[in-house]
């Protein structure tokens, strides 16, 4: 049967067809929907959201050590978190097959960097497969499991945004269970990486690498297409599709496995064609290695960009050089940009309004709330990686003068805290830190699509489970001051933030408000607020909340004067269809111009 | 069936249902026997920001994304987001625009102006321009949420594909209780475009 599937859905299907028994992940764009799909559609596979990628890989490793086929999925930067077990898993090898899917994000659509994870395969000396559409994504996952067991190695499958989030046609097949029986079997020299065993296993890694290189020479997915012999293009993954789009008639060496490289196959390809171009996204990974073999590359990163996403247009531009012309622009006026924004009613808005008002230095983290760095909130001062908000705040508070310490707070989302924030908070408790940490608890991993996590009370499949209590956890980690606030209540939030930052002791504030998009967590939405055009002075205070439901309307003539005779240039207006009635704007208006629905003031939304 | 690939660019604002609309189109083209690919971005990019979805179909499709200047049909759910992608459209391309405005932050804050008379700007440059009252017609059909389906109905007219296949696919994505309203919404949308 044929279906159109995203790359992520196809990877999930590949795991199903390959007889995978265990799948784990931490959500991260563009990889999140792989596990979402497995949990929704393939009950034969045990699935879990692990607290982070390192735990996911280690748990999957346990499953594979006793013979189960196991898959673990993460975004590119997630592999950094899982790199510790990965680099030594390369030594132990597997028993049941293990496939690690890395979903890279060229162009940083939803990431903090655009690292090229092909380097990990070379670093760990393990094979990496690179599909160029959903059909291949499914097939390469299955091939990955076969190779993993054949060569006793973890196998990486690399997707990118344009594979994971593109839909193409896939031929579905039936599930076939893995060939290895599940049994606990002792084998310390293979699975215990003491130095004495590790040294022996390193030998195995090097011998295996030689075998894998030999395998790559005849691997059918390293495919030669000889057409017009004047130009040969060496490429892999999505770049193949972009190059074929603009130059369908050139000859191609499409590498389904981008590491290790087939030296002899590449050498033979050079014999067939007059000159070779290497078309690849991000780093000159293939190019550098091909040049190191001693082959010339006529066009490579000298003409294709090293940054950002590749496109058919950029391939054409690079290859045709001076002859390239962009289509004549039809419309050239500058348009207002439309960047992503915190939603109307978002619980993060209240807390950032308070932090801005108090002029604090805010060390930040990864999530929707990173958007608070943008105008008009402009209230996030660092963001590097998961959990770093807390460690940044700690480091800063250890070196600045005592008075300055009060000016620093760390903010981190609930899911992000559980991923990478627990150990930094332990650091503060242990090392007599003084920083104030705020957990923005919106009851979901919101940005990636509302996945459950260890504090939502539900597993990936919606089964009820233990719920981590942040304040209890803070207490056992040594944080003496523990508070909870409703971020939609500005007065309360401001009071607590002022008190806690004043203290020369560590504080943990849990700012609890369900994500406004999380319908199941919210008891009811309220009716929209409205602005009285007679009373509004046009002071813009409410506009500075950055709520998409509130807009500025210039006024003139009679309208330029309020009912009580004050001049104004414009008024604020609430778009009724967008306002869920959180009540934040009502609290910031100094002129009583904002009216609550049916006279009832609201402070956000109650939990269902 | 000729060899040419047809390129459709959907654009709008996160939350308007663009991805659902492009999912439906993709399924229709598959069922009609074409090779088809589509692409968009998720995650942070979707939080109320500009959203696009590329849909391409034909005998054989390579790239899931469309080259600038190659769009055959621009299908936009919002005025400004229609304007933003004009340079992607072929000079003889079709533009179907929902007559709907959502202010971006810079306009809300009074720092920039929303472009005036977007339909006029487009009409001046493209002969094959169609303005559809998606929201208004959906309300008339009985539910404002059926605006996407009104628009899909309008766009469906540009393809040589059975109307019944479109309707079947649209309804397949919706709960039974809203089928009647959406059947109506699709028909009203389709009537907006003269053959």
Describe the structure.
The complex is a heterodimer of chains A (608) and B (195). Chain A is of the alpha/beta class. Helices cover 35% and strands 17% of the residues of chain A. Chain A has 4 domains: 2-218, Thiamin diphosphate (ThDP)-binding fold, Pyr/PP domains (Rossmann fold); 222-323, Rossmann fold; 348-521, Rossmann fold; 530-599, Alpha-Beta Plaits. In chain A, helix 1 (7-17) crosses helix 6 (134-151), helix 3 (53-65) runs parallel beside helix 4 (76-92) and helix 14 (348-357) crosses helix 19 (490-502). The model of chain A has no long low-confidence stretch (mean pLDDT 97). The longest helix of chain B has 14 residues, at 18-31. Chain B has a single domain (6-191), classed as Pyruvate-ferredoxin Oxidoreductase, domain 3, CATH 3.40.920.10. In chain B, helix 1 (18-31) packs across helix 7 and helix 6 crosses helix 8. Chain B is globular. Chain B starts with 5 loop residues before the first strand and ends with a helix. The mean pLDDT of chain B is 93. Classes of the chains: A alpha/beta (608), B alpha/beta (195). Chains A and B meet through strand 1, strand 8, helix 10, helix 13 and strand 20 of A and helix 1, strand 2, helix 2 and helix 3 of B.
Give the topology.
The complex is a heterodimer of chains A (608) and B (195).
Chain A: E1 2-6, H1 7-17, E2 22-25, H2 33-41, E3 46-49, H3 53-65, E4 70-75, H4 76-92, E5 98-104, H5 118-124, E6 128-129, H6 134-151, E7 155-160, H7 161-164, E8 166-171, H8 188-191, H9 195-218, E9 222-225, E10 228-235, H10 238-246, E11 250-255, E12 257-259, H11 263-272, E13 275-279, H12 285-292, H13 312-320, H14 348-357, E14 361-363, H15 388-399, H16 402-405, E15 408-413, H17 414-430, E16 436-441, H18 470-476, E17 481-485, H19 490-502, E18 507-512, E19 530-531, E20 550-554, E21 570-574, H20 584-588, E22 594-595
Parallel strand pairs in A: 2-3, 2-4, 4-5, 5-7, 6-7, 10-11, 10-13, 14-15, 15-16, 16-18, 17-18
Antiparallel strand pairs in A: 1-8, 6-12, 9-11, 19-22, 20-21
Helix pairs in contact in A: 1-2, 1-6, 3-4, 10-13, 14-19, 15-17
Chain B: E1 6-13, H1 18-31, E2 35-39, E3 50-58, E4 71-76, H2 79-83, E5 89-98, H3 105-108, H4 118-125, E6 129-132, H5 134-141, H6 147-156, H7 163-172, H8 179-191
Parallel strand pairs in B: 1-4, 4-5, 5-6
Antiparallel strand pairs in B: 1-3, 2-3
Helix pairs in contact in B: 1-7, 5-6, 5-8, 6-8
